[in-house]
Amino acid sequence: MDFELNDxxxxxxxxxxxxxxxxxxxxxxxxxxxxxxxxxxxxxxGDLGFFGMRxxxxxxxxxxxxxxxxxxxxxxxxxxxxxxxxxxxxxxxxTYFLFRFGDEEVKKHFEAALKGEEIGAICMTEPNxxxxxxxIQTKVLVKDGHFLLSGQKTWVTSAPIxxxxxxxxxxxxxxxxxxxxxxxxxxxxxxxxxxxKLGACGSxxxxxxxxxxxxxxxxxxxxxxxxxxxxxxxxxxIRIMTAALSIGVATAAFEDALKYAKERVQFGKPIGKFQxxxxxxxxxxxxxxxxxxxxxxxxxxxxxxxxxxxxSMIAKLYASECANSICDQASRVLASYxxxxxxxxxxxxxxxxxxxxxxxxxxxxKNNIGRELGL
Length: 375
Description:
Blueprint: H1 7-34, H2 39-47, H3 66-79, H4 81-93, H5 96-101, H6 104-114, E1 120-123, E2 139-143, E3 146-157, E4 164-171, E5 177-183, E6 189-194, E7 205-216, E8 220-221, H7 227-263, E9 265-266, E10 269-270, H8 275-303, H9 309-334, H10 345-351, H11 362-372
Parallel strand pairs: 1-4, 2-4
Antiparallel strand pairs: 2-3, 3-7, 4-5, 5-8, 6-7, 9-10
Helix pairs in contact: 1-3, 3-4, 3-7, 4-7, 7-8, 7-9, 7-10, 8-9, 9-10, 9-11
């Protein structure tokens, strides 16, 4: 494995770093405080080609490797978890199944989404189905050559402003999951109340209800009952991507705290000169660099089509836990200022909690890693 980034990867990293420093950082606090979807920045991310990074050039993408994608995700998350969460949803989960299975009609929505002209969302979680996806109760009846979709979804990222949904449901007499394309303007689709969250507040989230929504046959993405296998195709990438989100917010917290430790003077010298503070930074640096290298390793495995199921879980588990630890320690370096809303540390601390949930909770991942070990 080559630990040196190639020229393309360096260019991607620098492009998104410059964009975040110039456009995102100045607006990050307002995005969080207003809890509003960052429409203008979202479109600008689309203009940079982010939404098409994981798709072929033949469909409007740029066909980048997952390591390049992770480098972009890290920078976006360093600037704003709200923006990064919305953009990663658009670039992977919301659009992948349209790319894989969509016909000419559906592909038009996919192509518009790659440009940021349409916004997509994936509907998986239900009030009684989170980690246990097979507990999904949303049903689809096959009737007279079309489908009737009914059910309730919750925690749908970007739902209030979505143009279309990718919905996981069970068909009649079939316990396995199927995937459907559902435009948000169809009769029977209702976007429910907005869910107010602790962090990533600008990544708007809500419930979505489907009441006998009529879907033509071509809105079935893949085969009846094939949804679980399709989801497994990108599950490793989802986890690696969530790990990259973790690295981004941890980097932001670390950099802010380091700058503060060099400038804050107590007892006649910068607090960074005190051994207790130095030890905090040593611990944070070890966690951050170890997590980053393992995420890059998991991305390397994925890019080279090597087994990465267990490794993607380890990357997501370790990076998300490290991010929360680093944000906590960084906040302690700032002491009372880490508790003040005028400083960004309190936002990083809240945003980092998001990474513990997306891509699988730490508890579920530990169970799955145990099974991978034959336990």
